[in-house]
């Protein structure tokens, strides 16, 4: 026998491709969508402010123009008009058709170039043109130009043009400042949105991380630990619950396996100890060949016992792990029971027990012959072992609702109710003092149950102290 | 008869070699698959006993190569794995038989003899051991000329022992061959059967023919001369 080291597969190679971080994706979505909303809101806000300012300026220009028209009729000198208009940052002038400036706010001609005159002259009478101009110094002005009908002048080509200009620098300044503020707000909110989005995403994913951490922390020794379910969000509740259920099952099977290994070790300890002790004592001093022969024979018997335990355990383990691997053949239960009873009959006679068979003739079904013999043999051996001289062990078989019902009843000492639920467990012995004498390792009934299960059937036991025990196997009849 | 054992476990190889030599075989034993393959190529063996897991080259590969070379030397597999798939695998590759560890040495011996005989066992019409005579055809057994009153199963049991006179027959084999029963808990029951058979075959006579080999089973042989 040699151990072979199989190449361990690279974990990275078999790892499924990750679809990226949920946190990063959520953060991007949160930040992107809230930033977009803020962007739209600030855009609209800015547009409204700018629009309002523009509308306000136009209104001022139109009002001022109207006032000026009235004033022009009465006292057309600039200082008076300027005083009456009473606003800083507003300039006006009256331009004759030949381009001469008739009246103007002092210094206006240095600031605002003559512009827009052609447009207003070509427009309809009384029409107003509002436009923007840049001064030579780069100051933006909004300028209103309109023809002033002067008394008898019918042709508006001869009418002077009134121009009112309002300094936009202040507005521009306000708007630029607003824009800067809004940009600042936008940059800050972009950062805030990302941070908040990240916080929200992390908060949402944190329970998942907690589950992951808890799952990572669970090892064989801490299999009893469970996830705290109560403070989990609804969406993760089911996941965590299923996870805990899985842990329950794992813990149970793990406990079973540990118990099983401990039992195996314990059960093997006794025969190995016998073996060792016998051999040691035998080798302790010189003996006759007959004595050696005796010891060796005894040792061999002990080996047979160990082997039998191993066989049974392997059978049970395999039956559990692989499930059905039956070699079914069509059997006549009557004939099979007859053969088994015939085999055990002399042993029963020797023990002073009547071993009887009843029914089963003509009852056929598909069973694994060797396993069926094993199961019934175990039951008969059990019955014989626990029935006193003068008692009876009866094996019966009958058909019942598509199943073969095989019963092994004895008139033995019976089993206390407290033990009944456990008698099919491995290594369970109702009487702890009755250890592995007589080939009883506490595995016989486990094997019987395993065989019944492999056949898709069940096994049940009922017993009364002093009256006897009945083990009933129900195996579905199937053509083999 | 010359046998080759390819087995890396020294104790196993040791007792196999000793046991087989004491039963009249000439035995070579090697520890690893490659040496084993080399020895087999040189030829001259009547049977090869192969462990499934071996260093160098495992038993299955070794056997596959053998059969590819059309080397039909009988091969018997020994293995600690008794899954059905393994069993089938071994036989498919052309193994002649398959034994799962732990096995009874007498079982191995019987299997080896069966393979080497490659035919029916002693199918003589009459089996004779000392003064015991068994007429297989007429289902009659006599001892010192006196007819033995045997049940059909007892007759089968006695025939089995007589046919393999000198070989130790295990209880498991007895239950299988005579009663066609495979049970773990049958050992004591076989003892009871043997007890009853002996009461009829041996008890009335001075020379006992059926002997218990403790821990293994039973053997029928005439030990009066020894």
Please name the defining characteristics of this protein.
heterodimer; A: 480 residues; alpha+beta; Helix Hairpins; Heat Shock Protein 90; 3 domains; five-stranded antiparallel beta sheet; five-stranded mixed beta sheet; 11 helices; B: 226 residues; alpha/beta; Rossmann fold; 2 domains; five-stranded parallel beta sheet; four-stranded antiparallel beta sheet; 12 strands; elongated
The share of residues in helices of chain B is 40-55%
Order of helices and strands of chain A: HHHEEHHEEEHHHEHEEHEEHEE
Q: Biggest interface, and residues per chain?
A: A-B, 39 and 32 residues
For the secondary structure, the number of strands of chain B is: 12
CATH homologous superfamily label of the largest domain in chain B: Response regulator
Overall SS class of chain A: alpha+beta
Give, in order, the helices and strands of chain B.
EHEHEHEHEHEEEEHEHHEE
Low-confidence stretches of chain B: none
CATH class of the largest domain in chain B: Alpha Beta
How much of the sequence lies in strands of chain A comes to: 15-25%
Average pLDDT over all residues of chain A: 81
Poorly predicted spans of chain A: 1-13, 433-439
Shape designation of chain B = elongated
Task: Please state the CA-atom Rg of chain B, rounded to the nearest Å.
Answer: 20 Å
Secondary-structure class of chain B? alpha/beta
Structure description:
- The complex is a heterodimer of chains A (480) and B (226).
- Chain A has helices at 11-14, 22-74, 78-85, 108-111, 117-122, 169-217, 234-284, 289-322, 333-350, 369-385, 444-454; strands at 90-95, 101-104, 128-134, 140-147, 161-167, 328-332, 354-359, 364-368, 392-400, 403-410, 458-464, 468-476.
- With 480 residues, chain A is of the alpha+beta class.
- Chain A has three domains: 20-214, no CATH class; 234-318, Orthogonal Bundle (Helix Hairpins); 325-476, 2-Layer Sandwich (Heat Shock Protein 90).
- In chain A, the strands form three sheets. In chain A, strands 2-1-5-4-3 form a five-stranded antiparallel beta sheet. Chain A has a five-stranded mixed beta sheet with strand order 7-9-10-12-11. A two-stranded antiparallel sheet of chain A has the order 6-8.
- In chain A, helix 8 (289-322) packs parallel to helix 11 and helix 10 packs antiparallel against helix 11.
- The model of chain A is unreliable at 1-13 and 433-439 (pLDDT under 50).
- Chain B is of the alpha/beta class and 226 residues long.
- Chain B has two domains: 2-117, Rossmann fold; 126-220, Winged helix-like DNA-binding domain superfamily/Winged helix DNA-binding domain (Arc Repressor Mutant, subunit A).
- Chain B is built from eight helices and twelve strands.
- In chain B, strands 2-1-3-4-5 form a five-stranded parallel beta sheet, sandwiched between helices. Chain B has a four-stranded antiparallel beta sheet with strand order 6-7-8-9, with helices on one face. In chain B, strands 10-12-11 form a three-stranded antiparallel beta sheet.
- In chain B, helix 6 (152-163) packs across helix 7.
- Chain B is elongated, with a radius of gyration of 20 Å.
- Chain B starts with a strand and ends in a 6-residue tail after the last strand.
- The model of chain B has no long low-confidence stretch (mean pLDDT 86).
């Amino acid at each position: 026998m040699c151990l072979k080291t199989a190449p361990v597969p690279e974990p990275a190679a078999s790892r499924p491709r990750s679809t990226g971080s949920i946190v990063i994706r959520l953060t991007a979505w949160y930040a992107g969508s809230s930033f977009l909303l803020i962007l739209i809101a600030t855009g609209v806000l800015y547009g409204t402010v700018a629009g309002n300012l523009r509308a306000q300026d136009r209104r001022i220009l139109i009002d001022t123009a109207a006032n000026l028209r009235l004033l022009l009729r009465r006292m057309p000198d600039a200082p008076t008009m300027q005083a009456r208009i009473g606003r800083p940052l507003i300039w006006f002038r009256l331009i004759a058709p030949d381009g001469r400036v008739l009246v103007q706010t002092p210094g206006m001609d240095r600031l605002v170039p003559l512009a827009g005159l052609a447009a207003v002259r070509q427009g309809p009478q009384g029409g107003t043109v509002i436009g923007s101009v840049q001064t030579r110094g780069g100051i933006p002005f909004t300028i209103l130009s309109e023809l002033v009908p002067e008394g008898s002048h019918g042709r508006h080509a001869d009418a002077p043009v009134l121009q009112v200009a309002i300094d936009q620098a202040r507005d521009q300044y306000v708007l630029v400042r607003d824009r800067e503020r809004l940009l600042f707000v936008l940059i800050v909110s972009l950062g805030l949105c990302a941070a908040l989005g990240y916080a929200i995403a992390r908060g949402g994913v944190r329970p998942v991380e907690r589950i992951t951490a808890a799952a990572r922390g669970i090892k064989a020794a801490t299999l009893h630990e469970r996830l705290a379910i109560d403070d989990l969000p609804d969406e993760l509740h089911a996941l965590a619950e299923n996870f805990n259920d899985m842990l329950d099952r794992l813990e149970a099977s793990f406990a079973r396996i540990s118990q099983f290994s401990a039992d195996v070790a314990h059960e093997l300890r006794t025969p190995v100890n016998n073996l060792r002790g016998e051999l040691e004592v035998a080798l302790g001093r010189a003996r006759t060949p007959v004595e050696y022969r005796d010891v060796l024979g005894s040792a061999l018997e002990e080996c047979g016992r160990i082997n039998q335990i191993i066989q049974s355990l392997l059978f049970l383990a395999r039956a559990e792990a692989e499930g059905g691997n039956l070699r079914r053949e069509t059997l006549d239960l009557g004939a099979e029971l007859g053969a088994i009873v015939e085999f055990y009959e002399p042993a029963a006679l020797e023990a002073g027990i009547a071993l009887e068979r009843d029914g089963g003739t003509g009852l056929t079904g598909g069973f694994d012959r060797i396993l069926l013999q094993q199961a019934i043999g175990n039951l008969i051996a059990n019955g014989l072992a626990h029935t006193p001289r003068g008692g009876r062990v009866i094996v019966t078989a009958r058909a019942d609702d598509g199943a073969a019902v095989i019963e092994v009843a004895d008139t033995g000492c019976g089993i206390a109710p407290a033990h009944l639920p456990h008698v099919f467990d491995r290594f369970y012995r109702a009487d702890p003092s009755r250890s592995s004498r007589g080939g009883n390792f506490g595995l016989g009934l486990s094997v019987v149950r395993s065989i019944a299960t492999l056949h898709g059937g069940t096994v049940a036991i009922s017993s009364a102290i002093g009256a006897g025990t009945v083990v009933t196997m129900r195996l579905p009849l199937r053509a083999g | 008869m010359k046998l080759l054992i390819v087995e890396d476990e020294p104790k196993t190889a040791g007792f196999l070699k000793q046991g087989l030599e004491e039963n009249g075989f000439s035995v070579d034993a090697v520890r690893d698959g490659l040496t084993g393959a080399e020895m087999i190529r040189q030829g001259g063996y009547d049977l090869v006993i192969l462990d499934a897991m071996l260093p160098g080259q495992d038993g299955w590969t070794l056997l596959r190569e053998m059969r590819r070379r059309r080397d039909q030397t009988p091969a018997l597999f020994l293995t600690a794995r008794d899954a059905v798939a393994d069993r089938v695998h071994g036989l498919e590759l052309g193994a002649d038989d398959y034994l799962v560890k732990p096995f009874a040495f007498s079982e191995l011996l019987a299997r080896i003899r069966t393979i080497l005989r490659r035919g029916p066992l002693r199918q003589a019409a009459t089996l004779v051991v000392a003064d015991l005579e068994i007429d297989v055809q007429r289902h009659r057994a006599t001892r010192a000329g006196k007819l033995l009153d045997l049940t059909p199963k007892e007759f089968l049991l006695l025939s089995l022992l007589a046919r393999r006179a000198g070989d130790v027959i295990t209880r498991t084999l007895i239950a299988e061959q005579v009663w066609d029963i495979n049970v773990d808990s049958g050992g004591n029951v076989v003892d009871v059967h043997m007890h009853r058979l002996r009461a009829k075959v041996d008890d009335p006579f001075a020379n006992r023919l059926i002997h218990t080999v403790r821990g293994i089973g039973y053997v029928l042989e005439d030990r009066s001369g020894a």
